[in-house]
């Protein structure tokens, strides 16, 4: 494969996806915002902050110049935190080749506008790029993909040809990529599962058991599907890799930064302290704000997200939040979702 690929974002996930692409024979340039990270990747072939103990393929070249990274590339992969997507996309836009594929692998909404990442990309890039935008999502901890643990993900686009071209570039024997036509569902599922992962870390830290974990995953999926459907997603997407798949992996794994953040909060740490100690992106925090706003906009009930919002942003005691969830008014399990089918 002779694809020239730009990967924007040299954190855990960007570096691992760059590795997958380099192993697939792509010519990969990885943009890092700090010179010391780019130098380390170019000279030592490591990225010790984000992937300690891992040797990267020598074929990956790192750069701190967005224009050099993007110019002439066949595919541009954005893997920056969602809060920086618009800025980075805007800086990249003048250099994106007219027929380039544009993919993102970030899981969140834009703060304030609460737009999905593909909407942000569409607004920042020339209009003709629209059909070539795709999202890569699904249950995929960077720490396991780099060890070549068999992993399955999904690529979604409004254009099937785009999804299939991206699938062909990423797929290999340990990284199996499925296509999905529902870009809204794939983005919403990938973003909202981080809220439930944070809540799972909290629940584990409070000493609750497997029943509680199953409750969080299942009822979390119900509220993700409720909001997602109201936003235009196909409900069936949420029983796929970007829905239940990603929920399971993030709610049950200590690799998850969102799970770890929730666990730290359960031990009495303040949110600011948790984020500082983590030193890596915890998308679920801003996504909880997004869910708070979106559930009001779309008039959709999201009791788990609401209680997490109260714990994170109004100082509510997590034990009281659990009590309020368990004693709230009686509801049906599936009726509201089925109504939308
Ligand atoms: N890690 C994983 O397993 C997976 C992550 N994702 C998603 O990928 C996205 C990136 O996450 P991940 O790589 O894990 O994050 P990390 O915390 O590992 O790395 C964050 C990266 O983003 C850079 N960065 C931070 N702030 C800005 C900014 N304002 N502008 C530009 N760059 C910035 C950091 O640069 P610096 O080092 O200079 O601070 C670093 O390169 C997230 O949306 C996440 O949800 C999706 C699937 C799996
Ligand atoms: O999205 C992920 C795995 O699919 C990674 O989750 P965290 O950001 O919680 O580590």
Describe the structure.
NAD(+) binds at residues 9-14, 142, 257. It is found in: Cytoplasm. Pathway: Membrane lipid metabolism; glycerophospholipid metabolism. With 341 residues, this protein is an alpha/beta fold. It has 2 domains: 4-181, NAD(P)-binding Rossmann-like Domain (Rossmann fold, 3-Layer(aba) Sandwich); 191-339, N-(1-d-carboxylethyl)-l-norvaline Dehydrogenase, domain 2 (Orthogonal Bundle), CATH 1.10.1040. The chain has 16 helices and 8 strands. The chain has helices at residues 12-23, 35-43, 66-70, 85-92, 117-124, 142-145, 160-170, 183-205, 210-230, 241-252, 257-266, 271-278, 283-297, 303-314, 318-326, 335-339, and strands spanning 4-8, 27-31, 61-63, 75-78, 101-104, 133-137, 151-156, 175-180. The protein has an 8-stranded mixed beta sheet, with helices on both faces. Strand 4 (75-78), helix 4 and strand 5 form a beta-alpha-beta unit. The longest helix has 23 residues, at 183-205. It is globular and about 60 Å long. The model has no long low-confidence stretch (mean pLDDT 96). The site of NADPH dihydro-nicotinamide-adenine-dinucleotide phosphate has 26 residues, from helix 1. 1,3-dihydroxyacetonephosphate (13P) binds at residues 107, 139-141, 194, 197, 246, 249-250, 256-258, 283.
């Amino acid at each position: 494969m002779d694809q020239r690929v730009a990967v924007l974002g040299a954190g855990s996930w960007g570096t691992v996806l760059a590795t997958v692409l380099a192993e697939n024979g792509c010519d990969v340039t990885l943009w890092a915002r700090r010179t010391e990270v780019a130098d380390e990747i170019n000279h030592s072939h490591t990225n010790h902050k984000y992937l300690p103990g891992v040797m990267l393929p020598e074929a990956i070249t790192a750069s701190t110049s967005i224009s050099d990274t993007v110019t002439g590339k066949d595919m541009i992969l954005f893997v920056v935190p969602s809060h920086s997507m618009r800025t980075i996309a805007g800086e990249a836009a003048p250099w994106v080749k007219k027929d380039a594929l544009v993919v993102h692998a970030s899981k969140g909404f834009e703060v304030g506008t609460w737009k999905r990442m593909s909407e942000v990309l569409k607004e920042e890039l020339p209009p003709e790029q629209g059909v070539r935008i795709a999202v890569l999502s699904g249950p995929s901890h960077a720490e396991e993909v780099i060890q070549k643990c068999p992993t399955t993900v999904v690529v979604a686009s409004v254009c099937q040809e785009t999804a299939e071209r991206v699938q062909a570039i990423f797929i290999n024997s340990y990284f199996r990529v499925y296509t999905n036509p529902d870009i809204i569902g794939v983005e919403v599922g990938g973003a909202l599962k981080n809220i439930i992962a944070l809540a799972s870390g909290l629940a584990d830290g409070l000493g609750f058991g497997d029943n509680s974990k199953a409750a969080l995953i299942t009822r979390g999926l119900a509220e993700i599907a409720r909001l997602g459907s109201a936003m235009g997603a196909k409900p069936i997407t949420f029983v796929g890799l970007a829905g239940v798949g990603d929920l399971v992996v993030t709610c049950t794994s200590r690799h998850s930064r969102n799970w770890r953040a929730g666990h730290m909060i359960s031990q009495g740490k303040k949110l600011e302290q948790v984020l500082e100690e983590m030193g890596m992106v915890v998308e679920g925090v801003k996504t909880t704000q997004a869910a708070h706003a979106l559930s009001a906009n779309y008039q959709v009930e999201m009791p788990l997200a609401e209680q997490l919002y109260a714990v994170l942003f109004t100082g509510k005691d997590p034990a009281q939040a659990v009590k309020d969830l368990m004693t709230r008014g009686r509801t049906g399990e599936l009726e509201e979702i089925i109504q939308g089918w």
